[in-house]
Amino acid sequence: MSMQRPMVEVRGARKSFGAAEVLKGIDLSVDRGQIVAVIGPSGSGKSTLLRSINHLEALDSGEVWLDGMQVNQPLHGQAFERHINKVRQQMGMVFQHFNLFPHLTVLDNITMGPVILKGMSKSEAHALAHGLLSKVGLADKIDAYPSRLSGGQKQRVAIARALAMQPKVMLFDEATSALDPELVDEVNAVMKKLAAEHMTMLIVTHEMRFAGEVADRVLFMDGGVVVEEGPPSEMFRAPQKERTRTFLKKYLSA
């Protein structure tokens, strides 16, 4: 019986900004349908790792693979641009800040990608947008402009927009960290719904309780390396490494 290949695989990832090495040979594997949460202090390399997966940050060395295809292929010029644009269509990414187009309605924010990049008909894209907005609880906001939405609503639209490209994996980079506390739960609820549907997800988060509820596996990063990883039950109740215990103590001792 052949083993199923990982949906996302990172091999020996290294990245420096000037003299500061922020990724020091990271290896990571995410199986199809798996939810992996990445935790760690600020500056540990979490967001750089996530951004390198869809080549928003180019690695100095190492490889990134998506469903058996190398993301950072040694191509140049237009050949690489065509390749990376094709790859990015298969990865949905949600950032801290919502990056919605302010001059477009919610409907147009969601449908622009599928129509322009995937050649979807407008009627098909509109039907898709209606379904996704219902999924994220915003069916009544389809004609609204971003300026009329709360932060939580904007982030839910951003998730719907990413899902509209029908990606193989969703990448969340501190998706709730810019939100007021009372708006966090509505975004987390959408992510929990995706987890229940077995969407492959890689989630950088500072919310330990949420990570424990939704993740199959938790990675703790510090100083550009993966210090420890395991299922949430082990990571949050009985971490093996002292550095992990010290970091988690301030979150879990209350």
From TrEMBL:
GO MF annotations in UniProt: ABC-type amino acid transporter activity; ATP binding; ATP hydrolysis activity
Name listed for the protein in its UniProt record: Polar amino acid transport system ATP-binding protein
Stored PANTHER family: AMINO ACID IMPORT ATP-BINDING PROTEIN, GLUTAMATE_ASPARTATE IMPORT ATP-BINDING PROTEIN GLTL
Topology term for the membrane: Peripheral membrane protein
SMART domains: AAA
Subcellular location, record wording: Cell membrane
Family affiliation: Belongs to the ABC transporter superfamily.
One GO cellular component, as annotated: plasma membrane
UniProt keyword Transport, yes or no: yes
Gene3D superfamilies listed in its UniProt record: P-loop containing nucleotide triphosphate hydrolases (3.40.50.300)
Keywords assigned: Amino-acid transport, ATP-binding, Cell membrane, Membrane, Nucleotide-binding, Transport
Main localisation: membrane
Limits of the ABC transporter domain: 8-248
